[in-house]
């Protein structure tokens, strides 16, 4: 891998869509910085990908953690060409005070985490001829339903913020929002409301697409000629109606 190879920073790279995206971008010749809290999972992936990958334990809810990660990326790779804001949690359930900690966590990870990672990595992303910002939203960023109110709020927030950034940062940074429907990952494992967890797992199990399907779309978007941008990509399993 050349020191001239482009560099992608991926948050939430320890599982699911982030892990698959790291594999897809590494296969396309990117050097990849893998950020998440589970350092053992990141290191196993970095070992698999070889010298082109750097595992960095980082929590997107802590700005100091992201600043330290950005310093390591700069020291190791010297540039940033792609930032994938993928880290997320989906703690569904009927709206109630019992889930107030879940609500705060979703806002801090899904929305504030993406905003903070972007402001921390923006300068290197803009440098060296510009870069790509990929924000992972959701079908829930376009439609709200009972039990997903705060999760949907974080993804609607991602969509609105991304559209503003798209206008502000062009032509240096291309901004792409990806809105997946059901994808088979660990996302539902963390739902704390038992009945909602069971129903969501049953729904996802029946029709989910694979994290590799979304990773391929991300790899496609960032490898388009710089004269064009895929601004918004909605991708549902074929059998998902809503
Ligand atoms: P996973 O649970 O497999 O992945 C979530 C990732 O986020 C993990 O790598 C996790 O790493 C990371 N993460 C969570 N909290 C933090 C934190 N505080 N700091 C850093 N990293 C964190 O689920 P998916 O791959 O499905 O989710 C990825 C994204 O895709 C999310 O934004 C999700 O909302 C979105 N999405 C998923 C869909 C689906 O059906 N699966 C549909 C639509 C959108 P760790 O725990 O090691 O920190």
UniProtKB/TrEMBL annotation:
Keyword Hydrolase on entry: no
PROSITE patterns for the chain: ADH_SHORT (PS00061)
Superkingdom of origin organism: Bacteria
Pfam families per the UniProt record, alphabetical: adh_short
Keyword flag NADP: yes
Domain Ketoreductase: 6-186
InterPro entries reported for this sequence: KR_dom (IPR057326), NAD(P)-bd_dom_sf (IPR036291), Sc_DH/Rdtase_CS (IPR020904), SDR_fam (IPR002347)
Keywords on record: NADP, Oxidoreductase
Span of the signal peptide: none
SMART domains xrefs: PKS_KR
Molecular function via GO: oxidoreductase activity, acting on the CH-OH group of donors, NAD or NADP as acceptor
SUPFAM superfamilies per the UniProt record, alphabetical: NAD(P)-binding Rossmann-fold domains
Family: Belongs to the short-chain dehydrogenases/reductases (SDR) family.
The protein's name in its UniProt record: SDR family oxidoreductase
Organism: Solirubrobacter phytolaccae
Organism taxonomic ancestry: Bacteria, Bacillati, Actinomycetota, Thermoleophilia, Solirubrobacterales
């Amino acid at each position: 891998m050349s020191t001239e190879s482009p560099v992608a920073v991926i948050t939430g790279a320890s599982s699911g869509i982030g892990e698959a995206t790291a594999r897809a971008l590494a296969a396309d010749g990117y050097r990849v910085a893998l950020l998440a809290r589970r350092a053992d999972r990141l290191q196993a992936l970095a070992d698999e990908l070889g010298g082109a990958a750097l595992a960095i334990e980082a929590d997107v809810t802590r700005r100091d953690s992201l600043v330290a990660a950005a310093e390591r990326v700069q020291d190791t790779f010297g540039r940033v060409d792609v930032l994938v804001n993928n880290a997320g949690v989906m703690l569904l359930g009927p709206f109630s005070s019992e889930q107030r900690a879940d609500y705060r966590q979703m806002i801090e990870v899904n929305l504030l985490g993406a905003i903070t990672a972007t402001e921390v990595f923006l300068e290197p992303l803009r440098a060296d001829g510009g870069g790509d910002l990929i924000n992972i939203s959701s079908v829930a960023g376009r439609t709200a339903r009972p039990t997903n109110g705060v999760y949907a709020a974080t993804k609607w927030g991602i969509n609105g913020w991304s559209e503003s950034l798209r206008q502000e940062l062009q032509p240096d940074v291309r901004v792409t929002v990806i809105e997946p429907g059901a994808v088979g990952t660990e996302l539902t494992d963390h739902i704390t409301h038992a009945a909602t967890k069971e129903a969501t797992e049953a729904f996802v199990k029946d029709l989910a697409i694979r994290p590799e399907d979304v990773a391929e779309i991300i790899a496609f978007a960032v490898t388009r000629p710089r004269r064009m941008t895929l601004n918004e990509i909605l991708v549902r399993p074929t059998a998902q109606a809503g």
